[in-house]
Amino acid sequence: MNKMCQSCGMPLKRDPNGGGSNADGSKNSEYCSHCYVDGAFAQPDINAAGMRALCIENLVDGGVPKLMARLLTKGIPRLKRWRAH
Ligand SMILES: [Zn+2]
User: What pLDDT, on the 0 to 100 scale, is given for residue 2?
Assistant: First the structure.
């Protein structure tokens, strides 16, 4: 299984919680625990560009070179959360 978060693109297997959480406490397998908490998006007003910028920042903070961070986040605007808009 190689699912990734449909909001930020992080592989869900790298999520320590294994996915986000629904309002009823069950696990959400489309979004990660950073993006989706208790049935709602953690950053409800963000757009795809904003999410990408945030992810690049986090990756660079984690020691990933900026060029690599840009490549890793390239697919974010095509994820399910952003395609609806
Ligand atoms: Zn996410």
Answer: 60
